Amino acid sequence: MSESISLELTKDQKEILLKGLRFVRSSIMLDINDLPTNESEDERRANLRQVTELAEHVNRAPVMAH
To answer: Which of 6, 43, 49, 65 is the most buried (most CB within 10 A)?
Structure first.
């Protein structure tokens, strides 16, 4: 079971967070693996899936009036 937290973000904060998640996603995709294995590729896909799910969750979050 995963724990959850609740954050109130302004529109600008939400955009900064999403921009950071796009950077993280790009970093995972561009990571160079000299000897890729099935396990390392599975881990990469799992990490990308987690970042995508988090970005979708942030996108759905309401924006706090500022």
So the answer is: 43
Task: Report CA-CA distances (Å) from 35 to 24, 31, 39, 42.
Answer: 22, 12, 11, 14
Per the structure, how many domains does the chain have? 1
CA angle, 58 then 59 then 63, to 5°: 85
Give ∠ CA 27-57-11 in degrees, rounded to 5: 90
Residue 1 scores a pLDDT above 60: no
Largest CA distance in the chain: 49
Domain membership of residue 50 as a residue range: 11-60
pLDDT at 13 over 70: yes
